[in-house]
């Protein structure tokens, strides 16, 4: 049973435009959500997170939106740059848990 | 780089042989994790540690064991490797167990091939 779902395996976006990566979850107990970026042959790198008490968190070009009623979060990258081309993983955990549950990832390609 | 070294970076081994992967951290973080990444599965937790000699199972722990005798080292052992354990293995660390002020930081992975 997949509790964190990233339904788009890949996404292509023109440089300078907005990239929107989506993530859905089924476990209503999740209260902490993260996005990781992964380049080939490297480990995932933490990008941005959001707690369930918020509906938006922003860090430079990256903004994460959380819609708890829909059990949906999204990562917006504006403007997209070629260096943003990577696999993006959505992850979630519930209070007091040491474990993160990851989605399968979305491969973003930013075209110059 | 969060001060995490995984060794070896690549390994090819035969079915039935024991294999040990090592994760070494220089951050003095309490929590350490082993994940595996496979196509179509994202990252899945194998085992984790919340202190020296304190470990627990993750969602895909069958066929794996771990040990943590020092804060800085977390070992993952495949007692008898199988082809289904061919994967990329990532170690991660966290100061406070993945809370909002201490997300997991990952090493660069070990690519293991079991023939």
Biggest sheet features of chain A = 6 strands, mixed
Q: Estimate percent helicity of chain A.
A: under 10%
Mean pLDDT of chain B: 93
Described by strand count, sense and barrel closure, the largest sheet of chain B is:
7 strands, mixed
| Morphology of chain A | globular
Which structural class fits the helix and strand makeup of chain B?
mainly beta
Number of domains of chain A: 1
Attribute tags:
heterodimer; A: 112 residues; 6-stranded mixed β-sheet; 5-stranded antiparallel β-sheet; 11 strands; 56% strand; B: 115 residues; mainly beta; 7-stranded mixed β-sheet; 0% helix; 57% strand; globular
Molecular structure report:
With 112 residues, chain A is an all-beta fold. Chain A has one domain (4-111): Immunoglobulins (Immunoglobulin-like, Sandwich). Chain A has no helices and 11 strands. Chain A has strands at residues 4-5, 10-14, 19-25, 30-38, 45-51, 56-59, 62-67, 72-77, 86-94, 101-102, 106-111. In chain A, the strands form 2 sheets. In chain A, strands 2, 4, 5, 9, 10 and 11 form a 6-stranded mixed beta sheet that branches. A 5-stranded antiparallel beta sheet of chain A has the order 1-3-8-7-6, with no helix packed on it. The radius of gyration of chain A is 13 Å and the shape is globular. The N and C termini of chain A lie far apart (38 Å). The mean pLDDT of chain A is 94. With 115 residues, chain B is mainly beta. Chain B has strands at 4-7, 10-13, 19-25, 31-38, 42-51, 54-57, 64-70, 73-78, 87-94, 105-106, 110-114. In chain B, a hairpin with a 2-residue loop joins strand 5 (42-51) and strand 6. Chain B is globular.
